[in-house]
Structure formats: structure tokens, C-alpha cells
């Protein structure tokens, strides 16, 4: 260290120590901060739960709307009257 005038670092350290020695915390400061933190955490969880319910409800509504848009008549894909495309297996000799 320097033997001359106090360095800037030493002056800052002295000022901050003096400033810190004058600070007094309120006796219930920790409880107040803890209460505030818990309140915010409850609020975050409530908002998250509301968003989950909202997204689930919107997905259900979209699905029901899409199902409601279907025609009452059977679709061509499921209505195949041609016998050439029958999915029945041909009958052959059976094993004894």
C-alpha cells in the first residue's frame, strides 16, 4: 500500500463503513418482506392456474366447434360401396 495520503479505495471503504454503521433495520422487516414474497407467489400461482384453465377451455371450445362443423352425411372415405375394394379376406382351406 501507499504510505502517502489515503488511496481512493481506503477513502471509499471508510465512507461505506461509516454509512453502514448508521443503518438500522426495522425489527419486523424480515416478516414484512417474507409476507410480501408469499403474497406475490400466491398471485403468480393463481394467474398461472387461470391461464391453464383458459387455455384448456379454449382448446375444448375449438375442438367442439370443429366437430360441430362436420356434415351429417357420411364422408366418402368411409362410404365405399364398390365390391372390388372389399376388405374381407378370401375364404380358403382351413387348418384342421
Structure report:
By secondary structure, the protein is mainly α. It is 56% helix and 0% strand. The protein contains two helices and no strands. It has helices at residues 8-21, 29-68. The longest helix is centred in the middle third of the chain and has 40 residues, at 29-68. It starts with 7 loop residues before the first helix and ends in a 28-residue tail after the last helix. The mean pLDDT is 82.
Class based on secondary structure composition and strand pairing: mainly alpha
The residue fraction in helices comes out at 55-70%
Assess the beta-strand content as a share of residues.
under 5%
Rg is: 39 Å
Distance between the termini: 105 Å
Mass-distribution shape: rod-shaped
User: pLDDT below 50 for ≥5 consecutive residues: which ranges?
Assistant: none
What about the largest sheet? none
SSE topology string: HH
- What's the number of extended β-strand segments? 0
How confident is the prediction overall: mean pLDDT? 82
Treating each run of at least 4 consecutive H or I residues as one helix, how many helices? 2
Keywords:
mainly alpha, 96 residues
Give the structure's gist in a few sentences.
The protein has 96 residues and is mainly alpha-helical.
Topology:
Elements: H1 8-21, H2 29-68
